[in-house]
């Protein structure tokens, strides 16, 4: 934890004032009995990033906001897993270890698609501190229709159900890794294996499918090819490029032809995905690859452009699409997901691996005595009327605890959003009432902090 200088983060956040989050509850979801030889015993949250479970579209302008579970992973999934894996006279205890639980939405002018993705392991105890890995699964469920956001709870349920069905049908492995409980908690020897594209030198060639890319096995069937690199124009595209791919020496009257119909390609040094009509370079990152494409068209602009028509309508429909957008290619499923990480030279100061947290107290909020503020049990400052404190947080697997102390103490434990800011309003209470710490919308928090800054700059008469 460290203090942040407010103007570096606050001013660029104005463009993100709509940002909030959507909480997804699984309380109403019911899993049928899986017919397994096991009963549910423990759940292990092995996700490397617990800050959100993806992004969804909200509001009339369909802006992206983070999606989170309504409670912890254990709170949300345990009732469902107990329904699906009840204890019986001959069942054996089962540990369920979750590596990924994510939702995603793709919205165009003509359709909406929502999906849920789950990666998990099943383990059974074989001794006081030994566990055998039974099965690792990766499940992807998709659904189309109107308001796909409301269907995410059911999509998550279906993905879990598919994984449990695979467990019920699986043949017990003849040999399997044996882990200690510490190794289970650490996520060792689990989830999906690393794929050849992650472990071997890249093979030069053209990928006809995602599976060819994952297996590092491009099929080059139409002759040699070459790549022509094109630097993107515009300050917002600084440091990025795309490529054109050409088949060579096809015939005397057709010496070259654009490579069409491919999933992607590799020059032996870098891999490229064909996305939005372009070949874009992929960057490796643990369980996914990232790349920078164009922002998707705003649906309101698309509709308005169709109404206006002509060149003006076309310009309106595509407005904003010449801006960079980060995407992630999931290796488990081949799904391309929109990333919430802003890219380009837009001055956004909070990095994807940093959460900015602002705790403020209004000038008219109760007694004048300052409150003592602690973060993770360590004193972080004093908060008086009309003041704020700014913190950063980098741990995506552990909740942040902020406590304020007056005559009584109040603590607020939460997982902040990364790559953006979280605003918390503090009211001091009095001798009979404990202080309060409440999350507020970014628009409200931004307004209050600007108001505090303005008061600080007023001359003293």
Please describe what this structure looks like.
This protein is of the alpha+beta class. It folds into 3 domains: 156 residues, 3-Layer(aba) Sandwich (Rossmann fold); 136 residues, no CATH class; 103 residues, Immunoglobulin-like, CATH 2.60.40. Helices cover 18% and strands 38% of the residues. It is built from 9 helices and 27 strands. The chain has a 5-stranded mixed sheet. Strands 9-13-14-15 form a 4-stranded antiparallel sheet. A hairpin with a 4-residue loop joins strand 13 and strand 14. Helix 7 packs antiparallel against helix 8. The protein is globular, with a radius of gyration of 26 Å.
What's the structural blueprint in terms of helices and strands?
Layout: H1 6-10, E1 22-24, E2 38-45, E3 55-58, E4 63-69, H2 73-84, E5 92-107, E6 112-127, E7 130-144, H3 152-169, E8 178-179, H4 181-186, H5 196-199, E9 205-207, H6 210-214, E10 225-231, E11 241-248, E12 256-258, E13 264-266, E14 271-275, E15 278-281, E16 283-285, E17 288-294, H7 299-308, H8 310-317, E18 324-330, E19 336-338, E20 355-361, E21 371-375, E22 378-383, E23 387-393, E24 400-405, E25 409-414, E26 421-427, E27 436-440, H9 442-457
Parallel strand pairs: 1-4, 2-5, 20-26
Antiparallel strand pairs: 3-4, 5-6, 6-7, 7-8, 9-13, 10-11, 11-12, 13-14, 14-15, 16-17, 17-18, 18-19, 20-23, 21-22, 21-24, 24-25, 26-27
